[in-house]
Amino acid sequence: MVEMPHTTEGSSRAERTSGRRSRFSYALRKAPLNVKLCFAVVAVYLFAVFFAGLIAPFGESELVSPEPFGPWNSVNLLGTDQLGRDVLSRLIYGARNSIGIAVVTTAIAFLLGGTLGIIAALFRGWVDQVVARVIDVFMAIPQLIFALMLLSIFGTSIQNLIIIIAVLDSTRVFRLARALAMNVAVTDYVESAQLRGENLLWLIAHEILPNIRPILVAEFGLRFCFVFLTISSLSFLGLGVQPPTADWGSMVRENASLITFGDLTPLVPATAIAVITVAINFIVDWYLQISGASNG
Amino acid sequence: MAERMATSLQRESSPGGTERGPALLTIRNLVINGLVDDTVVPILRGIDLDVNRGEVVGLIGESGAGKSTLGLAALGIVNEGCILVDGSITFDGIDLRNSPESAKRDLRGARIAYVAQSAAASFNPAHKLIDQVVESAEIHKTEPRKRAVEKAITLFGSLALPDPTRIGERYPHQVSGGQLQRLMTAMAMNCRPDLIIFDEPTTALDVTTQVEVLTAIRNVVQKFGTAAIYISHDLALVSQMAHRIVVLKDGVKVEEAETRRMLAAPEHPYTRTLWAVRSLEKPPASAAPPILDIRHINAAYGQLRVLEDVSLTVQRGHTVAVVGESGSGKTTLARVVCGLMEVQQGEVVFDGTRLPPLRGARNADVLRRIQLVYQSADTSLNPSHTVRKLLSRPLRLYCGLRGSAGNRRANELLDMIELSGAYIDRYPSELSGGQKQRISIARALAANPDLIVCDEVTSSLDQVVQEGILKLLMSLQKELSISYLFITHDLATVNAIADEVAVMHRGRVVRVGEKNTVLSPPFDGYTQLLMSSVPQMNPDWLDGVIQNRVGVITPARFAK
Question: Where do the ABC transmembrane type-1 domain residues begin and end (chain A) (predicted)?
């Protein structure tokens, strides 16, 4: 670039004046078809989350049929479950519970693990050592077994479930955030902010976080899928979301025996889990691609 | 000695050489475009270039002028993201533009070689040096390995590498940067190519090392009569090497002339700006009370002592330049002043009060009054902040200015650094190198400082941009009577900006005083070496240096 004060390069002037948000929507418009499709899938799921009460034909735990394991018909589109509840309605309500719990859990995991990771990278020395070793101990125990153990100690309420999974998952987030922040914490601009006398909160939120955000956001998508699957597995094992609350994992478990009779009903909630996991992974890949390209 | 004289005579007596048959390399009307975010940006716009056998052509221009693209095109390589639109590249009768890749691969390394700017990045750290040096001979099967190794060892000797027989057994990290650059030259020369492209081979090196490498390169190029394209942004360097110089600007050839003619009478006004900084000189300033007093500082990284008994005084409104090669402790000194580095002994007195050694213990007012501007604006400006945020934060923190008052001041600051308010919402990645450095200066100014520590602020910039930044710093000093502690390795910069100069070598201040006293004889040994290492705008400079240094002093032996 030829440097001359007061001169402006004529190229891509319009792009410069626009902000980050419109840059994102521009990228979205140019996104490949499969990514757009994935966004549509996520939108459908979100619609179910927010308007479950409006679109579900029956209530969440309403007994609609005296007949358990009823077949698919015009009233109960996906049949009924072992207590005679409408499977479609429970599937829609299940979206709220399964996705809601997973989002909250992942958010807490990132808040906790991300903050600790950045702090460890900023301070280094004994702070880093203490936090990292404690986290190592947590990571040394197989996650699912550890979760089962803690759930049986503290009881299987939804709050406990969220907190336990969040804490266990934050260890992975910590590792990533620490490694990313290490690279940023040694840059001149962080040193210059420290030299300016900035406090810890500013350093975390303004100097480091924006520069590691793309990868953290991508990791959020992946972590969300893992949390989702963990909760589903726990529910399947009977230690997750407790009845009568609808949840996709427990729905698979409750109807699992049907598969031996050639009934595909238990595969429907399982497919619901699979589809959102795949959709989010596609979106995450795409996001990494566009943010990587624009950040050079 | 006689041989050296002979070779230097030979260099002068082979000018353009058009009478010696067809040129080795002929480039005609070369047009290469680049793609940046789907926009086509012209990089080269119709370049003609001839290189004759045994001739060294210098290619000079500021960054972004298309020098490296042209250098790679001579190898028949067009970088990814670039498109060769038009023109022809002919090497010894072979059309490099339309030949198949396999044919071009046979030429590269064997008949055309390339020496990159960063030798450290070009060697594979996992293999021994000798294996990499003879690699091209093995790939092209020009000769058995044993002979290639013998040739390499002879080359190491001609390149004045220490212990030529065994240096090849080392790994890249076990030799110095200057040695690595010479080894890379050996790697390029080992197949005795007809043409070598040197892409800024000494830019990353110290002035004192640069002279050694330059001498070594020139000796072997002359010895084997290799034709070369020597790319650099430093005209003084190019003029030591080249018979003929081509000046590029924005992908256009603005001037081409025989070296001596170009230096004596540059025709194009742009060529004259290439030595812009050399024409700046700061008039002496009147004495003033001291603002910064560094007393007997000792500092170390673990066992390694980096500063030994360093004392220095900066007067209010004056500029003290600290010069020395890398590793001399200049930057450490800057870090001590800013409270970023612990000292073992000594004290820093600022405006009459003794400062706590580390920044954490200093109060906000001291932090405000001493500002640091880093060497690389790329790393010192947060890439995710806009100019507005970069400037308004210190304004708010130090001066309590928020909202519209902060905005107004930020615009004033942009005005002071000669950038328009249109830049305020840009990200650093949308600014050029010089503009970024201006923004980091503005950020320092936002604090209303008394002292700005400038750590090599101009060394990564082009001459013209350097001149602009130095002029800016001087006018700001006049206006606001700021003092500068200016760390640099470039004596032309010192001349342009300093009132007092301190020469550092191996952690000690070896010479200090008023600029004209320090920079005029009689010199001590190290200052002499440093002064003589600065390339002069005189094609005979290198010959002079070599003659003067024979048996007198060499950097390697200058241990004590």
Answer: 95-288
